[in-house]
Amino acid sequence: MRLLAIETSCDETSAAVIHDGTVLSNIVSSQVDLHGEYGGVVPELATREHLRNLPPVVTAALEAAHWGSSELEAVAGTQGPGLPNALMAGLKAAQGLAFALNVPFVGVHHHEAHLYSPWISGSPPKANFDALQPNVSLIVSGGHTILVHVRAELDHIVLGSTLDDAAGECFDKTAKLIGLPYPGGPEMDRLAAQGNPQAYDFPRPLLRDATDDFSFAGLKTSVRYFLQKNRDILETEQSRRDLCASVQAAIVEVLVVKTMRAAKRLGVRCVTASGGVTCNSRLRHELKAACDRDYLTLRLADRALCTDNAGMIGILGERKLMQGNLAGALDGEARPTWNLTNSS
Ligand code: KG4
Ligand code: ZN
Fold first, then answer.
1. pLDDT tens-digit readout, 132-160
2. In testing the pocket of ligand 1, which one of 29, 87, 279 has its CB within 8 Å of the most ligand atoms?
C-alpha cells in the first residue's frame, strides 16, 4: 500500500510516505525554537505554524519518496490525543487530501503509534511486526507516561499512567528551575553525562507503590525547595552537572524499576520503550542493563522515531487498513482526550 501520513498533535509538523511497511520519507518540522521563547508550547502559535508548515512538509515528504500525490492509495492522520486545534489542522488536511484523491482515510491514535514504534527499525526504517512478542511497554513523552501490556499485535491494555506530571514534563520543569533552555530534557541529559548521579538525593515517587501508576509532581517540587535552600549550587558548572545527573537518576530509576516489575509480574520475556524521553541516554542504558540481568529482550524505539513523527503514524495506519479496519470517516472529529485502551 502507498500511504501518506500526517502528524500535528503537538509542536511538530510531520508528513511521511509509507510503502508496504517501509518508511520512504519522514519529514519533521519542529517548532522548538518558536516555543522556546515562552518556556513551553503555546497552543495558538502551534496551530498557526502547523497551517503554515503543512503544505511544504507534505510536498517535501512526497518529493523525498519520489512520488506524486496521484500515486497514493490511502492517507493516515493523527486523530488524538493532543492539543485540540493543532490536531484539527493536520487531521482536516489528511481527510481533505483523502477526499480529493478518493482514497481511504485512517485516523490514528498517537500513543498507539508510539507503542508499536519500537518494531520499526533499519535504514530505511521498516516495520517488523512478525518479530512482535508479548511485552511490557513504557511510553514516555512530554505529556504522558504510560505503562502498557501488549499481548499481541494491536491487542494491548493500559496498566498504569501518571497521576500528575509526565516524566518529560518533570525533565522540562526541573530543567527550567536549573536555568536550562526549553525543552530541558535533552539539555539535562547532556549535562548529566558529566555529573555524579549520587551527589544529591531526591525522592523516587511511587517506587514501592503496588500499582503501575507514576507521579512526578512531588519530585519537581522537592527540586524547587532544594534550590531555594541551596542557591549556590547553580553557581558552579560541576554542581549544576551533578544536580542534573541526580534528578535524571531519580526519574530513570522510577521508570526502570516499575517497568521491570510489571514485566516480571506478567511473565513477559520482552520490554519495549518509546516516546521523546526514550532518547535519554541513562534511561536507554539502565533499561538495557536491567533486561540483560533478567534475560529479557529489549526493544527501544530508534532515536529518530522517539520524538513525534508521521512515520510511526503511517506504519500503524497502513497496518490497520491492511488488517481490515474500516477506513475512518472523512468528517471524523479530532479526539484530544482519546483513551489508549479503547483505540484498537
Ligand atoms: O514524544 P515527544 O516528542 O512529544 C510529546 O508527545 O510530548 O516528547 C517530548 C519530550 C520533552 O519533554 C523532552 O524534554 C523529552 O521528550 N526528551 C528528553 C530527551 N529528549 C527528549 N528527555 C530526557 N532526555 C532526553 N535526551
Ligand atoms: Zn508523542
1. 999 999 999 988 999 999 999 999 999 99
2. 279
